[in-house]
Amino acid sequence: MLNGTGVKIFTGTSHPELAEIIARRLGLSLAKAEVTKSGIGETQVCIAESVRENDVYIINTGCGAVNTALMELCIMIHACKIASAKRITAVVPLFPYARQDKKDKSRAPITAKLVANMLQKSGCDHVITMDLHASQIQGFFDVPVDKWLFAEPSSILYIRTHFDVKNVVIVSPDAGGAKRATSIADRLGVDFALFHKERKKANAVSRMVLVGHVKEKVAILVDDMADTCGTLCLAAQHLAEAGASRIYAIVTHGILSGNALKNVEESALEKLIVTNTLPQSDNQANCSKIEVIDIGPVLGEVIRRSHYGESVSKLFHEVPY
């Protein structure tokens, strides 16, 4: 808990519920700011209290109207910067445009680098984010980036408290997520499996091959984000065909766009467990298989440690209470 001296927590419009959880964890009230849109769609920000020489944290995540959320964040950072804030930290649980992190074809933009430039040019001194889709995005910044697998300890705690670990196998839905899955499997002391997948186009998987044994095991798929859920649902189908007794998925960022909820409801998954880096109340209301892990206390503890100059690496291994 913070004593409130010299600390201000602001939120944009993308995820005020998470901001409230974080502020409550810190024993603070959210600072007053008004974010509106003009008649022609321009974002207007009014910081309604002094931030002079304060340590300012601005919470906005990359969901819903992503471009609006990004512009809100940049304008709020700029407003606090020219109002003489001592330090400004952008708390971005889901980093916008994280999947556009490389030039994978001719004339393709590296939009994640552009977003990093926008945040820095706005006046950001520090960035806190969770489970970046690609770790190299940290290198796009010239300011400190606290990007930790904060969701990993929470996921491990969930698995330990909800399953008989001796009967669990951790599964990565693709080779790119093998490092994440093996890290969780090693810490739990369980087996690991992965899928090799071939894509015809982005967000469309044509073929998947399972490497590993899952027969009569509780298979838990782990990934950083679930968008259309095509990969997860296809992986769950293959796991069922391979003899897995029960199938779950644990994902940090539940984007759940398009027909994702319908796909999950009709899939072999018993549950899709996501964190609240994005708002999930509507998704839970529309799909009985969605369950949410609250990472607000983790982000709150990161902010507390950041403010007092304490190490945050401990949170890589432990869930704060």
Summarize the structure in words:
The structure is a single chain. The protein is an alpha/beta fold. 31% of the residues lie in helices and 27% in strands. Helix 2 links the parallel strand 4 and strand 5. The chain is globular and about 60 Å long. The model has no long low-confidence stretch (mean pLDDT 92).
Summarize the structure.
The chain is an alpha/beta fold.
Report the order of strands and helices. EHEEEHEHEEHEHEEEHEHEHEH
The count of strands amounts to 14
How large is the share of residues in beta strands? Answer: 25-35%
The span between the termini is: 11 Å
Question: Radius of gyration from the CA trace?
Answer: 20 Å
**Structural class by SSE content:** alpha/beta
Tertiary shape: globular
